[in-house]
Design brief:
- With 531 residues, this protein is of the alpha/beta class.
- It contains 20 helices and twelve strands.
- A hairpin with a 5-residue loop joins strand 5 and strand 6.
- Helix 13 crosses helix 19.
- The longest helix is centred in the last third of the chain and has 21 residues.
């Protein structure tokens, strides 16, 4: 039985313990049994040569007899152990002094800040610590409760049943053997959040089924040795252009392990684009003009850790100088203005980006891969970095509000267009602003003595914008605005994915129709702004 989060939140602890005792399906426990028989293999391998390999490797990792269990008892016990009596509360912040006091208090108490916007700050903590926190804050800061039971909300994000996993396995197997359309696979795949192993096998399946426009590659290894996969999709008009670099849109997700909706949204975009080619004119035209590179899980170690141990883990799993404080924040580890605005130097901080630029292995791997791509002629024209939560479209710079990007007007124009496309798609409101406003209000400057709730330097969008001159770089914070936070229920996967698909279509149309290509250098952009 899977109860809604709001129902679970009202149950007494004893009832929650009974609910959390439900057993699980484990992908690692599945035994290969599908796609058996030489006749079946022979009938499919002549269609796509990679299908035999797919059957013998990726499919067998995931497919097999389903477990009769429904949910992971290990995560359930861990959730109760870690987050029993934990809540998420919101403070409405009206001035820098209030934020400074809140930043100092959360740092002093080692609290987990979930969201920091110009209007509010969300914090997770034990109910028993609420009073202690309030004693450190001015009376003007009074909290409201957003999530009354974090353990229950976290539990609800895990896949519901073994039957659905079995259905996904069967659907993927049939698609691999060309027995069924891919629609069935997509309907099941996006019904729940998926593990890293399932995502990897799913991407290999897509590459095998769309070899003419798809290429799956590893951009490097994570700290713990996992591959960081990038999936390139693009249509070339003839064989002569196969190896010719093109303008490229990069879309990343999963920089923070607990932000599952960001990974699912990148996967949804990949799925929607690759299956719509030659079926939907807008997507077909987009892929004929641009390559799109999708990186669903830039932080595979952190993502895996959220499935196996701690659902709310944010950082990587890299060892730091403090033995008991592992992990670096990938989005504060990039090399541009890395130490800006009070770089967070405490390894125990959720925003710790390391002791030097690119100390985070995964951020370094992405930067090396991107530089190598540009040296080989690729031009990154746009970068979308998906996160959660708070429904915002943010553009450079993140490190300061004192410096405007040269093409500020274009960034604002396109950002507003992306937000409008989302609103027209679903009715959801996404605010548009400079990324600095979420971390450094314009009333604040680097010489101020007030502490910040969240560090701002070393952001991925700043690095791609300034160093690789990806002219349209955005961080998009997805659903929701706080009712569930990082623990967004899985029934939001498809609606959120559709919002991002509408935004991507708008982005493609904007890039093709605007006159921005007449300005090929940042110097030209500066001249344009002076006119």
């Amino acid at each position: 039985m899977r109860l809604p989060v709001r129902t679970l939140a009202t149950l007494p602890v004893a009832a929650l313990v009974l609910t959390f005792s439900l057993p699980t399906v484990s992908c690692a426990s599945l035994q290969p049994s599908l796609l058996e028989g030489d006749a079946r293999a022979d009938s499919s391998s002549h269609v796509f040569p990679l299908l035999k390999w797919l059957r013998d490797s990726a499919v067998e990792v995931v497919f097999g007899k389903p477990s009769t269990r429904t949910k992971a008892s290990k995560p359930a016990a861990a959730l109760q152990s870690r987050y029993r009596n934990h809540v998420v509360i919101r403070f409405n912040v009206t001035n820098p002094e209030e934020e400074g006091a809140l930043a100092q208090a959360t740092e002093q108490m080692f609290l987990d800040v979930w969201a920091s916007t110009p209007e509010y700050v969300d914090v997770r903590l034990d109910r028993a610590d609420v009073l202690a926190l309030l004693t450190l804050l001015p009376n003007s800061l009074q909290p409201s409760v957003l999530i009354p039971d974090v353990a229950a909300a976290a539990w609800a994000t895990y896949p519901a049943a073994a039957a659905e996993m079995s259905q996904l396995e069967s659907s993927m197997a049939d698609a691999a053997e060309m027995k069924t359309s891919l629609d069935g696979v997509g309907n099941i795949f996006f019904k729940d959040y998926q593990t890293l192993a399932v995502i990897t096998s799913w991407m290999r399946l897509l590459e095998a089924l769309f070899p003419s426009i798809a290429n799956l590659t590893s951009i490097g290894k994570s700290y713990e040795g996992r591959d960081v996969y990038a999936f390139r999709v693009g249509a070339r008009s003839n064989d002569d252009e196969t190896k010719k670099p093109r303008k490229t849109i990069l879309i990343t997700g999963g920089l923070h392990g607990r932000e599952w909706i960001s990974t699912s949204s990148v996967n949804y975009l990949l799925w929607s684009v690759i299956t719509a080619y030659e079926r939907e004119p807008v997507i077909t035209k987009l892929l004929e003009h641009f390559d799109i590179v999708f990186i669903p899980v830039l932080n595979p170690d952190g993502y895996e850790y959220t499935w196996q141990t701690d659902r709310l883990w944010r950082k990587s799993r890299q060892q730091t100088k403090m033995r008991f404080c592992r992990g670096l924040d990938l989005d504060h580890s990039f090399g541009y203005r890395w130490d800006a605005v009070r770089h967070q130097a405490d390894p125990c901080s959720e925003s710790y980006g390391g002791d030097q630029p690119f100390q985070a292995v995964e951020a370094s791997q992405l930067a090396k891969w991107a530089r190598n791509e540009t040296e080989n002629g690729t031009k990154f024209v746009a970068y979308l970095d998906l996160h959660s939560y708070s429904q915002q479209v943010l553009f450079p710079y993140a490190y300061t509000c004192d410096v405007d990007p040269p093409n500020l007007e274009n960034l604002e124009e396109l950002g507003l267009g992306l937000a409008k496309a989302i609103r027209m798609s679903s009715g959801e409101l996404y605010t548009v602003d400079s990324a600095c406003e979420s971390a450094v209000p314009r009333s604040y400057n680097a010489t101020d003595s007030l502490p910040r709730v969240e560090a701002a330097g070393g952001a991925a969008i700043d690095w791609f914008y300034h160093e690789l001159q990806a002219r349209y770089s955005y961080q998009i914070k997805l659903r929701d605005t706080g009712s569930y936070g990082f623990l967004l229920p899985s029934d939001n996967i498809v609606p959120t994915g559709e919002e991002m698909l509408s935004a991507l279509k708008y982005l493609g149309d904007y890039l093709q129709s605007s006159d921005s290509w007449a300005y090929d250098s940042r110097k030209d952009l500066k001249k344009r702004r002076r006119r």
